[in-house]
Backbone:
């Protein structure tokens, strides 16, 4: 999920300006859905200024972890400080107009590996075959967003989806089951063209799947129902033990809850 707070200014590079969505507002979502933990991901609208995300982590307390955005020249001291504040990874948003470069990703992955952090990567999944060799060489943890985020939903046999499965085979890669509305051409309520991918990911690698709300669903003209996003997991992972892995055990392992 993401937090947007009017107390913090937009970055000069911002291209989206979502309405305010605070930690207090998300607590209501947590109460409604029975969620006790949260991972706060730095929004692109704040660029390299992580103050809003760090402030949210402080507000949520020990039940929260965060994903920051960092320049390659960030100091080890600042990374250590962020770790104590709850940060557990760095975001690489490689769609649109990225702040980061692909060249810096292996180096940053190696720098954060001793901290037990992950690289949180979002890209058009159709490009995974292009980047798979580099990603497969990473020695640190990798998280891929939104069921692989295939900007045009693909068949299970598509080279990009097969690349995703191979990365998950490594044991160092996770995938978020989230935000089907961002890529589905069929749409609500079942998002069938994305759900087929989510079900296949769960079937192949239940130990490497995570659920994410993507609240407050930035960029959507009509806000999707967050409870409906959680309900989709009943279809994607119909077995209760598997859902427990996705909602409880896997994030505990990855983020150190």
Residues:
């Amino acid at each position: 999920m993401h937090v947007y707070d009017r107390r913090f200014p937009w970055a000069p590079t911002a291209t989206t300006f979502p309405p305010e969505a605070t930690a207090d507002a998300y607590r209501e979502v947590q109460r409604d859905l029975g969620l006790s933990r949260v991972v706060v991901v730095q929004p692109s609208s704040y660029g390299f200024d992580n103050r809003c995300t760090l402030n949210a982590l402080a507000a949520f307390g020990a039940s929260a972890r965060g994903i920051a955005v960092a320049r390659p020249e960030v100091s080890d001291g600042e990374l250590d400080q962020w770790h104590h504040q709850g940060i557990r990874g760095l975001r690489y948003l490689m769609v649109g107009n990225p702040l980061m470069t692909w060249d810096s990703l292996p180096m940053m992955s190696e720098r954060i590996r001793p901290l037990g952090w992950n690289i949180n990567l979002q890209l058009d999944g159709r490009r995974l075959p292009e980047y798979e060799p580099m990603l497969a060489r990473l020695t640190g943890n990798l998280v891929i967003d939104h069921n692989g985020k295939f900007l045009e939903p693909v068949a299970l046999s598509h080279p990009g989806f097969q690349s995703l499965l191979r990365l998950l085979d490594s044991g160092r890669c996770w995938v978020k089951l989230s935000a089907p509305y961002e890529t589905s051409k069929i749409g609500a309520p079942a998002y069938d063209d994305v759900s087929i991918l989510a079900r296949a990911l769960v079937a192949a690698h239940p130990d490497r799947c995570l659920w994410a709300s993507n609240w407050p669903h930035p960029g959507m003209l009509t806000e999707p129902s967050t409870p409906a996003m959680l309900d989709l997991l009943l279809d994607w992972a119909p077995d209760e033990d598997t859902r427990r892995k996705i909602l409880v055990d896997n994030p505990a392992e990855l983020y150190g809850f």
Q: What stands out?
A: The longest helix spans residues 240-255. The two ends are 16 Å apart (CA to CA).
